[in-house]
Design a protein that fits this description.
14 helices; elongated; 12-stranded mixed sheet; two-stranded antiparallel sheet
């Protein structure tokens, strides 16, 4: 490998017919380029989709009540019911491996009239009655003050944590918000914190226009009693929420005398299940990218192998002379293999470099024109580049193996007769 004369001979062979060498290298170049671009495009699509999940705990389900569709225990179908705080205790006691259960009530929503007042300013915002755990299920950055705590829950404090969008709508730019009061449907709440969430697709601005108050003070202020609008439930690591969600729903069905086979009475959204579906989709896309890229690369490798066979044929007399002078057959085989590997790696590295340049230009365009929904930061990992290099080395060996075998099978006397 470190023989100067051997490398000189390799360069002479590959440069003796530039046009043929370039055409041969293009097949490998194009194959590895397609592989890199397909994988980076798949990653960009994955990043865009994953933005919609944000930092929310993916091992989480959301559950709410709906009208029953089956009669049960003398109660008619079509009956409406609401979850109660007692349901939360029952779920905690009867269902193992749960990390957080956050009951929640809500005021406001799309199309609702202004429900929050501060001085002469008003706004329509979503107001949530929550427990402190919600910040671990739907993470947010507290930029001023603090979030809810259990002292607020126990003492039913009328305090509020507002979003950055609420602050912009109700306060002057440099005004200090902590310790001030906002009026939510006629009830005063003191602001103790300001939060900001990451922007996820088109819902980023809407996510900053929310107000969080303690669940207990919400229930008291707005006459909700022990009603629960819906729940956010997160399972412990190592246990998927999908595997235990039926147990959770069975508990509330039993508590509210709902038929066990009524599939519509308890609504739910399983974030873990949706996340796994997305992951499976992108796993399939990665497989397709590797499959197509390797097939294109294989066609280039076959081209390299064919050209090396031609090169061996052209050098039959030379090989015969070298054999006649006593050169070891293995030395000739190494020579052919090194020529094949060198040509494959050089063309493949050019494909990787060009692919990296294309990815860089795409990211530069995205930065200039702003974020695009469903597509963000296309890239390939270092592991993919290393895997591509290994593929190139193996491809070079495969491309040179048959020509190398053909070269050492040439008998010196027959080679010398070749014109």
């Amino acid at each position: 490998m470190f023989n100067k004369d051997r490398w000189k001979e390799i360069l002479e062979v590959l440069t003796s017919n530039w046009f043929r060498t370039v055409l041969t290298a293009f097949g490998v170049f194009w194959g590895i380029f397609i592989l890199i671009v397909l994988l980076s495009a798949g990653k960009g699509l994955e990043n865009g989709i994953m933005k919609d999940f944000g930092d929310i705990a993916t091992n989480t389900m959301f559950m709410w009540s709906r009208a029953t569709t089956k009669a049960h225990k003398g109660l008619p179908k079509g009956r409406s019911f609401l979850f109660k705080t007692e349901d939360v205790s029952s779920i905690k006691e009867q269902v193992p491996n749960l990390r957080f259960i956050s009951p929640r009530n809500q005021l406001g929503g799309f199309g609702d009239a202004n429900n929050v007042v501060r001085g002469l300013r008003t706004g329509a915002f979503n107001v949530y009655g929550d427990y402190p755990e919600i910040i671990k299920q739907d993470p947010m950055s507290i930029t001023q003050g603090r979030f809810l705590n259990y002292s607020d829950i126990e003492e039913k404090r009328k305090i509020a944590v507002i979003g950055d969008g609420v602050k912009t709508g109700l306060y002057d730019k440099d005004e200090d918000v902590l310790g001030t009061y906002i009026k939510i449907q006629g009830v005063n709440f003191m602001v103790v914190g300001v939060y900001k969430k990451k922007s996820n697709g088109g819902d980023g601005e809407e996510g900053q226009k929310q107000i969080f108050v303690p669940f207990t003070s919400f229930s008291q202020a707005f006459n909700r009693g022990n009603d629960v609008g819906w729940m956010a439930i997160t399972a412990k690591d190592g246990t998927s929420i999908t595997s235990i969600k039926n147990q959770i729903m069975d508990v509330v069905k039993e508590n509210h005398k709902v038929h066990p086979e009524d599939q519509r009475a308890v609504g739910h959204f399983d974030l873990y299940e949706q996340f796994n579906r997305v992951q499976s989709l992108f796993g399939a896309l990665r497989f397709v990218a590797y499959f197509v890229g390797i097939l294109v690369l294989l066609s280039g490798v076959i081209g390299v192998s064919n050209i090396m066979l031609i090169v061996v044929k052209e050098r039959t007399k030379e090989i015969g002379i070298r054999r006649a002078l006593g050169e070891d057959p293995w030395s000739i085989k190494i020579q052919i293999l090194m020529e094949s590997i060198f040509l494959t790696i050089i063309s493949g590295m050019a494909g990787i470099s060009f692919g990296a340049l294309v990815i860089y230009l795409i990211n530069a365009l995205l930065d200039m024109n702003g974020p695009v929904d469903m597509f963000a930061n296309p890239s390939v990992s270092l592991g993919v580049v290393i895997a591509a290099l290994l593929i190139l080395i193996v491809s070079g060996l495969l491309a040179g193996f048959i020509p190398a075998q053909s070269a050492i099978k040439v008998k010196p006397i027959e080679a010398l007769r070749t014109e």
